[in-house]
Specification:
five-stranded parallel β-sheet, 49% helix, 15 helices, 317 residues, alpha/beta
């Protein structure tokens, strides 16, 4: 019996794979993979692969440029708390790993000198994200933007009349998110061991899902997997109850999913970027004000002396 040749992926499917899958992250144990080898994994030559990457980057850049045409938005983006010389690391799954993601758009909204490192991996659960802590520690970021939990809410064996079983239980998701925060926060440049730098860790809730489209999506149905909106809402509610700043992305992304009902369109990613900027602009203003006040107090103390005058006329501080 001879096997039938496998049909090559369509251009649309190849583009989607390149958009969401990054083998250089999942195959990190192989070391640095040459671009030509990465291209081969998608059935492309190096030129075609580079052209796709350039196109995705240009779409993200154009989206950022279009946003900043609005003077009010440009002003808010200018008040973000991220500064040249700082490193921002993103933890997440496909919504963040997407080459058209909110994080890719953010990259083009920030001034030169701000370093952005995207550790997000499509399909990542919070359990798997814990394995990234050594890498996060090595990077020692100034800021961590964390958007996780959607894949934990995936249900196995979901179908008509069968709700399915969560891939990661609610209790385990809570434990993992707390562990990420406690252990990951200690890696920031802003704090020593034991200081979890509360102002430098920012949660983003999972984006909304289109329940009807996700349940009807043929690939999910064949695989017997699915999602329930209430599970995603449960993750979001937990994060919104945390003391760290949490950006709720659900309302902004409603109805902005691809045909699978889960992944966001470029418009959906744009909406997440806008929501993040709006949420952080005020904190950026506060941070700048505090920094300015601290610098002014220091300069005043230097001029007037913060110590005591001694009887010999020598000023000590």
């Amino acid at each position: 019996m001879t096997s039938q040749p496998t049909a090559p992926p369509t251009p649309h499917l190849t583009e989607k794979l390149v958009r969401f899958q990054q083998p250089e992250k999942t195959l990190r144990y192989l070391g640095e993979l040459p671009e030509a080898r990465l291209a081969e994994l998608f059935g492309l030559d190096a030129d075609a692969y580079r052209a796709l990457l350039r196109d995705f980057d240009e779409q993200a850049r154009a989206t950022a440029a279009e946003l900043t045409k609005d003077a009010d938005f440009a002003d808010r983006a200018g008040r973000l708390p991220f500064r040249p010389g700082q490193r921002i690391v993103a933890l997440g799954e496909s919504t963040t790993a997407d080459r058209l993601s909110w994080f890719s758009i953010l990259r083009h909204l920030l001034p030169d000198g701000v370093e952005l490192v995207n550790l997000a991996v499509s399909g990542l659960t919070t359990s798997q994200a814990l394995a990234q802590l050594p890498q996060l520690s090595f990077l020692r970021p100034d800021w961590v933007l964390c958007m996780l939990g959607a894949n934990d809410a995936q249900r196995l064996g979901r179908g008509t009349g069968a709700p399915g079983t969560r891939l990661v239980s609610e209790a385990e998701t809570t434990r993992n998110l707390l562990a990420l925060r406690e252990l990951g926060g200690r890696t920031t440049r802003t704090g020593d061991a034991g200081d979890t730098a509360p102002d430098r860790w920012i949660w983003l809730t999972p984006s909304s899902i289109d329940q009807e489209r996700a349940d009807a999506y043929p690939h999910f149905r064949r695989a017997g997997i699915g999602w329930a909106s209430e599970d995603v809402d449960g993750v979001a509610d937990f994060l919104l109850g945390r003391p760290e700043r949490t950006v709720d992305t659900r309302q902004a992304t409603a109805g902005l999913q691809l045909d699978d009902g889960i992944h966001l369109t470029l418009e959906g990613q744009r909406a997440v970027a806008i929501t993040l900027v709006d949420a952080l602009a005020e904190s950026g203003t506060t941070a700048n004000r505090t920094e300015t006040e601290t610098r002014a107090e220091t300069e005043t103390g230097t001029r007037t002396g913060t110590g005591t005058e001694t009887g010999t006329g020598t000023r000590t501080s």
